[in-house]
Automatic annotation (TrEMBL):
It is a multi-pass membrane protein. The keyword Membrane applies. Its EC number is 3.6.1.68. It is found in: Endoplasmic reticulum membrane; Nucleus inner membrane. Residues 158-270 form the Phosphatidic acid phosphatase type 2/haloperoxidase domain. It comes from Moschus moschiferus (Siberian musk deer). This is Polyisoprenoid diphosphate/phosphate phosphohydrolase PLPP6.
Length: 289
């Protein structure tokens, strides 16, 4: 086990002192980048030997650059431990992810035009909040249970039973991912949401969006609707997702992933479709028509 290497001031190597950053002579950022570039060209610069050279070099310990190497072992620039290079010379994937995150935050802030009463579209906030309620879990759960209690056909009961299963699966998966990812809601969000549970302080993924995508796909597949109504269902889901960003509740990526997850959740529900044949107990437990 290697303990983190530190420089003469006791600071972990790879964390740049602001007072010395940028100066090769002081161990600043450019030196790290320079060395990480060199490391791919110096013969024998494999990670293990690089680590050994770096840890044994007195130059490394002092945190200064060997401008005048005395012995042959100092002729080559010292190599930094691999972990330092990972931080300061991130992979292409790392750069791509950071850039995506930066664009996401920037775009979400720009689109958060209803985040507060004083925001540029603040007067639209009540409408956005109405949309928020239309995609909330409580009305959907209570509505489904009510319809299930009133349903007088096996076919209707089967569809509603599966809708209930879909809504519960959605709540479970979204809570699980929110709890694992723990991404904070945008700073400009006002936490004035109707009936939330503890994981709802996190924003990834958007639960309203997963529900909107799941429910709309469910409705389109199991309800016979005229074309204008089908268009309305799709529009509702899309506008609900957009309204989450406009209200400042979510970043764009939370909503984009929400659409994806909701869409996939329907595939799971469809695959596990509950029917009197596959889950007779459920249907027997429910009252006969
Ligand atoms: C049966 C049971 C535990 C119901 C809970 C229903 C409930 C509180 C759902 C939460 C809905 C909500 C506020 C989700 C957050 O949506 P985001 O779009 O803000 O992620």
């Amino acid at each position: 086990m290697q303990s983190p290497r530190r420089n003469a001031e006791g600071r972990p190597l790879g964390t740049c002192d602001p007072s010395s950053s940028g100066s090769p002579a002081h161990g600043g950022g450019s030196r790290f980048e320079f060395q990480s570039l060199l490391s791919s060209r110096v013969p024998g610069a494999d990670p293990t030997s690089a680590r050994l050279r770096a840890s044994e070099s007195p130059v490394h310990r002092r945190g200064s650059f060997p401008l005048a190497g005395a012995g042959s072992s100092q002729a080559l620039p010292p190599q930094l431990p691999e972990e330092d290079r990972i931080d300061l010379n991130p992979s292409f994937l790392g750069i791509a992810l950071r850039s995506l995150l930066a664009i996401d935050l920037w775009l979400s802030k720009k689109l958060g035009v209803c985040a507060g009463e004083s925001s540029s579209w603040g007067s639209m906030r009540p409408l956005m909040k109405l949309l928020e309620i239309s995609g909330h879990g409580i009305p959907w759960l209570l509505g489904t249970l009510y319809c299930l209690s009133r349903s007088d056909s096996w076919a209707g009961r089967e569809v509603l039973m599966n809708l209930l299963f879909a809504l519960l699966l959605d709540l479970l998966l979204v809570s699980l991912i929110k709890g694992l990812v723990r991404r904070r809601r945008p700073a400009h969000n006002q936490m004035d949401m109707f009936f939330t549970v503890s994981v709802d302080k996190y924003s990834f993924p958007s639960g309203h969006t997963t529900r909107a995508a799941l429910v709309s796909r469910f409705i389109l597949n199991h309800l016979v609707l005229a074309i204008p109504l089908r268009v309305l269902v799709v529009l509702w889901a899309f506008i609900l997702g957009l309204s989450r960003v406009m209200l400042g509740r979510h970043n764009v990526t939370d909503v984009a992933f929400g659409f994806f997850l909701g869409y996939m959740q329907y595939s799971i529900v469809d695959y596990c479709w509950l029917s009197p044949h596959t889950a007779p107990v459920l249907f027997v437990l429910w009252n006969q028509p």
